[in-house]
Structures are given as structure tokens and as C-alpha cells.
Amino acid sequence: MDTEGDYDDRRITDVGDAADLLIVEDATEEVGPNLPVTSYRMKPSLRELFPASHIKSIIQSTIYDKLQGKVYNPDDARKWTREISDEVSAAVKDIVQMPRFKHVVQVTLGQQLGAGCRYIAKCCWDAEADSHTSDVFTNASLFCVCTVFGVYLY
């Protein structure tokens, strides 16, 4: 039989929005057999969503610093593409804290010839938890599209 005094050593912690579960924590570190203690969540809370605006600013600064004043050369384009993707990936990993997210960086760099270019990315993901952000850099000689995908790990 539970009385009101039995709940004095426990506290309930809200771990996110209303769809998330409540965690019952035992302040004395002893978990009784009738206490449901679970921390598994099916989606990120509102404060853990993919920070698209912050990542977009990382992409913008990296692309601008790397490609400003450059002229397209096929040999250099391969090197620049790798450097941009490595720098963006490292910055996202170090600066942006995204628990339970994996990120993928995709960079496309080409010569500016006046023709149109279509860029499409497709993947299977959860629209409520996964997201992406992208930015484009152009000058008279080249264009660059950098996309960062964030996939939530269940």
C-alpha cells in the first residue's frame, strides 16, 4: 500500500515535450521493483532538434573562406571539395552538440558555364526527427552546393 510519504525520495523529471515519457528517478539510487524507470525516446525533444540555422552559418563561412576569389580548375576542385566536406563535418561535430544524431556532409562543386544545374537529394528518413540544411556559393568561375543531413538514431 502506497502512502504519500513513500514518494518523498523520488522525483519526476520531464525530459522533453508532451509526447516524451516521464522518467521517475529515485533520489536514493535504489530502484524498487514497481517503479518504471525508462529513458528511451522515439524522437528528439524540442531542444534537441537539428540546429539547421547554426549549421547553415558554419557551411556559409567555410565555403566563403575556401572558395572566395578562386577560379575553377578540375584538379583543385577535387581538393577543395574534400577540404570543405572535412572542415564542415569537423565543425559540426565539435561546435554543434547533437546527441543521438549522425550527420552526413555532401559537397558538389562545378564550373560555372551558364547552363542550369539541378541538385536533388533523396533518402528514406523520419520527417519528424531527421532534417537537413544547405547553402550555395557562386562566383564568375564556379558554383558549390554543400548539404548537411542530420539523421536521428533510434
Quick overview of this protein structure:
This protein has about 150 residues and is of the alpha+beta class. About 25% of the residues lie in helices and about 25% in strands.
Write the layout of secondary structure elements.
Blueprint: E1 10-14, E2 22-26, H1 52-67, H2 74-95, E3 101-111, E4 131-138, E5 142-152
Antiparallel strand pairs: 1-2, 3-5, 4-5
Helix pairs in contact: 1-2
GO molecular function: dynein intermediate chain binding
Pfam families: Tctex-1
Family: Belongs to the dynein light chain Tctex-type family.
Biggest pleated sheet: 3 strands, antiparallel
Number of helices: 2
CATH topology of the domain at 52-152: Ribosomal protein S3 C-terminal domain
Task: State the end-to-end CA separation.
Answer: 37 Å
Q: How many β-strands, per DSSP? A: 5
Which regions are unreliable across 5 or more consecutive residues at pLDDT < 50? 5-30
Side-by-side strand order of the widest sheet: 3-5-4
Strand content: 25-35%
Fourth-level CATH superfamily of the domain at 52-152: Tctex-1
Structural features, described:
The protein has about 150 residues and is of the alpha+beta class. It has a domain at about 50-150: Ribosomal protein S3 C-terminal domain, CATH 3.30.1140. It has 2 helices and 5 strands. It has helices spanning about 50-65, 75-95; strands at about 10-15, 20-25, 100-110, 130-140, 140-150. The strands form 2 sheets. Strands 3-5-4 form a 3-stranded antiparallel β-sheet, covered by helices on one side. Strands 1-2 form a two-stranded antiparallel ribbon. Helix 1 runs antiparallel to helix 2 (about 75-95). The radius of gyration is 23 Å and the shape is elongated. This is Tctex1 domain-containing protein 2. One of its GO terms (cellular component) is cytoplasm. Belongs to the dynein light chain Tctex-type family. GO terms for molecular function: dynein intermediate chain binding.
